[in-house]
Amino acid sequence: MPTASLATARLAESAWADASVKLLNSTVAMVGFVVALLVVFGLTSLVRGRLSRPLTILVLLGPALLLLFVGLVVPLLRTVFLSLRNDDSTRFLGAKNYVWALTTESVQQVLQNTLLWLVVAPLAATGLGLLLALLVDRMKGQAVYKSLIFMPMAVSLVGAGIIWKFVYEARDAAQPQVGLLSQLAVSLGWEHPPNWILSQPLNNFLLMVVMVWVQTGFAMVVLSAAIKAIPDEITEAARLDGAGGVRLFWFVTVPMIRTTLVVVLTTVMITTLKAFDIVRTMTGGNFGTQVLANEMYEQSFVQYNVGRGSALAVILFVAVLPLVAYNIVQLRKERATR
Amino acid sequence: MSETAVGRTARARAAAAGVRTARKSLGSPLGSLVVIVVTVLWTIPTFGLLATSLRPKQDVASSGWWEVFVHPDLTLSNYHTVLFEGGFSVSGGLMPYLVNSLAISLPATLFPLVLAAMAAYVLAWVRFKGSDTVFFVIFALQVVPLQMALIPLLRLFSGGAHLGSLTIVPAVDLSGTYAPVWLAHTMFALPLATFLLHNFISQLPRDLMEAAVVDGASHFRIFTSIVLPLCTPALASFAIFQFLWVWNDLLVALTFAGGSADVAPMTARLAQLSGSFGGRWELLTAGAFLSLIVPLAVFFALQRFFVRGLLAGSVKG
What is the ipTM metric for this complex? Predict the structure, then answer.
């Protein structure tokens, strides 16, 4: 026992030593970055005359433009280029990788799953968020409810995946259940609940629950702000005209917040399309739960099929493009009217 | 006549008040119940995680976490085990990964913040021919999802850049350092950061900027001593958003840091452990909760900034 605790103490000590070195490195990098910038600023402001202005622009704008060019513009073009070549990028294939992605049975299932995610998770999160936004407004202590429902948004999708994997944990019936869902099923009289994560196609929906859990708070907060922004006169006029409850909701509230509703929906869709963390953490894409973003990662960085991986990335890009474009335009419009 | 007018207003007011109370009471009990049920449902999974991480190993193996209400026997030993010993039948705990998360997130927040503020200032106040086009291109780059840039960028970091036989960027061995992760996060953050900060910086009062120029201040001076201090709220919102984004990120981390204890952050390690060592719940829950502490603390301490930053950043690629 004493040797064990000694070994533990030594482990802890080396872990702290390692930590201080790493944090020192990272601090040096930050300080170095700021100092280097200040030195360049100082030197550049010594330059007088005609060169001064272009040099200033170069120094302030140059780094961002260079990084964007190297990190986004060139890779964007290269990914399109790579998607037209074979997996070690030695031969030109034309559209073959795309044909593979759209016709191979296993990938078709991936695309189907992705489509299902894209419809179910955003609609559920937005719908539930809207319901909560309507109800929570009238309650005492609404800030507490709001922040508790919003909280999952702060957590990583990996963390969320682990939290819910534990909820879905199933053991065989001889042992006591430790997963909440299994225990709930047993308490309700279902003697042999299934192993949730393995049951297709149910498992797809169970994974979507995690995304809904994360995104509902976001939808609620945004929609609640939009509902509060509806002028009181409008709702009261409608009420005096005899509209109440459901009618008021459909004919006054919903039209007034339509733009926000669509933006929330598309925003959750974008997140859903690009998220691979949940699937990766909970099933690794097995048991028929694979989605596009994780398949892209698998093809590119696990199996090193660069051509196929790039083609999947391009498909993802094309799918997400109209949603993001719509959102950005809306965001801009909103800013312009304000 | 005036009396009836007053009477009418009073009646209308009373009616409006009636409507308001009606709205308050209408469906209230049921509505409140729905909200309370959802709040409880939304909180339970996280609570279960926390409770499990605080229970002794044998309890976790033999009963569900809800037993904690009957047998409140709590310990911090799981945290000690996952941090320093490992316990997932591998040596070495999560401590190095936790440190990596911090060592990655802080610079990956500072770098894009400063570079984007510089660019936004030029585009808003030092305008030149084509500056609108440059702004629009940066703005449009927001649509590019991370996935589109990963493979080429990884190749650039590991193999340099070549045009035919001409080497443009030589291969630099950055593996085992944080540099590729910092760089990748900085690059991916720039479009959104520049766009958001430009919105803010371009709204600064024109008189103030012109007075500074008349006084002979250089653009660098204006940037560091006027623009940055005045932009603190916008900078804080974006910094919080970016910090949490990097802290919670898995994709960039897996691609550019791999899984080694030298550079990989918590998310990458937890994703691994969840796959291969999922049975040890008392350890996995403790590990997961360790990675949640920082975002949760930031969330509850800086909620207003957090929500603002998050709403602004919700379109991030």
Answer: 0.90
